[in-house]
Amino acid sequence: MFGFRLEATAGAARAGTLTLPHGEVRTPAFMPVGTHGVVRGLSAADVRRTGAQIILGNTYHLHLRPGAPVIRDMGGLHRFTTWDRPMLTDSGGFQVFSLEGLRRIEEHGVTFQSHVDGTTHTLTPERAMEIQRDLGADIAMAFDHVVPGQAPRELALEGMERTLRWLERCRRRHDEIGELQTPQTMWPIVQGGTHDDLRLRSLEGTLERGPWTGVAIGGLSVGESKPVMHRVLELLHPGLPREIPRYLMGVGFPADLLEGIARGVDLFDCVAATRNGRHGTAWLPSGRINVRGSALKSSSEPLDPECDCETCTTYPRGYLRHLFVVQDILALRLVSIHNVRFLVRLGEQARARILDGTFDAWRRAWLSRVRNET
Question: pLDDT grade, residue 1 (50/70/90)?
Answer without folding.
Answer: confident
